[in-house]
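User: tokens in, sequence out, please.
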């Protein structure tokens, strides 16, 4: 049964029975305060809960989050919770604000799909739907506070890029010896695009891949750990606007550091220019973003324009997949234009000087 159709008590009972097998000698296990946030995305479903148990004379309690893979059609081709857990635990051990993963459950028997359970972090997250550029607490901050929030997020990205990924045991992320990391990244996303388009041809994405091939820089820098989804909407911020947690590691890998800034900047462009909204007044300019990152990382940003186009191609692929997924599950009619014409594809066409998709762009987020 799909998780969304399960009664909360059914989820609670399944987790309680499962939890007893995870903690040796645990008795009096209870699962309380269970909730499924409405903001759970199309890649994983999050279930928040508090687990309490006894071992001997000791009583313990912990606030946890279960991240559950889709049990049907999904945004991504596959979910690799073991990879995510290895990366998250390595970074948490290195002192980065990444929730530690307690358990990975590969069997779908418990909740209908594999899942991981991690420590729960607290804080506020800039929303995607409606986006933080349209309404919400980020717009209520002063300009100085908005600048501090962005600075903290960019510094956190620099911290991820600066870790010794080999020393942390993350060498399994590397492509086969002799393969360039960007070649491997391109191959992965071409494969994803071929799957996501479901036999259709997306002219804008095809033009984007052509532009990337024709304009590729000679980038021989040593690869760094890349979070992959580097945006403020995947961070929890404390009241002091420090980054309490870096979340959502489905797209983690190795690459060049400009990729991370390209994604950060393109997501901001998508949430502003892409849907007809201004950039919040306290947000740093593009040059200021680069300066913050370079100071925090000790690296030079050399090919940002190229990697912003790369970000646009990737988001356009994700939007094509999202359009097909929403048609498949009945949220959009079969002739919905979103997979071809969305803010990401419109911006991609503008960046590379290609013909933009005609008509009005369609997206599952809006500027309401």
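Assistant: Sequence out:
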């Amino acid at each position: 049964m799909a998780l969304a159709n399960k009664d909360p008590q059914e989820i609670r009972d399944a987790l309680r029975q499962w939890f007893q097998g995870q903690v040796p000698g645990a008795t009096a296990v209870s699962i309380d305060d269970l909730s499924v946030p409405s903001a759970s995305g199309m890649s994983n479903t999050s279930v928040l809960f508090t687990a309490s148990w006894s071992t001997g004379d000791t009583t313990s309690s912990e606030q946890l989050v279960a991240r559950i893979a889709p049990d049907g059609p999904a945004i991504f081709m596959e979910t690799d919770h073991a990879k995510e857990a290895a990366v998250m635990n390595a970074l948490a051990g290195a002192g980065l604000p990444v929730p530690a993963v307690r358990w990975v459950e590969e069997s779908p028997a418990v909740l209908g799909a594999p899942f991981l359970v991690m420590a729960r972090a607290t804080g506020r997250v800039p929303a995607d739907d409606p986006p933080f550029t349209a309404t919400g607490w980020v717009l209520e901050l002063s300009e100085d506070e908005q600048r501090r929030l962005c600075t903290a997020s960019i510094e956190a990205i620099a911290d991820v890029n600066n870790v010794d990924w080999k020393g942390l045991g993350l060498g399994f992320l590397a492509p086969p010896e002799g393969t360039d990391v960007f070649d491997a990244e391109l191959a992965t996303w071409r494969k994803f695009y071929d799957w996501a388009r479901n036999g259709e041809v997306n002219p804008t994405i095809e033009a984007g891949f052509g532009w990337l091939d024709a304009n590729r820089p000679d980038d021989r820098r040593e690869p760094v750990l890349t979070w992959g989804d580097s945006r403020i909407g995947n961070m929890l911020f404390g009241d002091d606007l420090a980054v309490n947690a870096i979340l959502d590691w489905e797209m983690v890998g190795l690459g060049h550091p400009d990729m991370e800034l390209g994604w950060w900047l393109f997501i901001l462009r998508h949430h502003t220019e892409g849907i007809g909204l201004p950039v919040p007044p306290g947000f740093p300019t593009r040059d200021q973003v680069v300066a913050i990152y370079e100071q925090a990382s000790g690296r030079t940003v050399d090919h940002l324009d190229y990697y912003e186009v790369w970000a646009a191609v990737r988001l356009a692929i994700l939007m094509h997949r999202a359009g097909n997924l929403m048609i498949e599950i009945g949220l959009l009619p079969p002739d919905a234009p979103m997979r071809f014409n969305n803010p990401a594809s419109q911006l991609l066409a503008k960046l590379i000087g290609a013909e933009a998709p005609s008509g009005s762009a369609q997206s599952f987020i809006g500027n309401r």
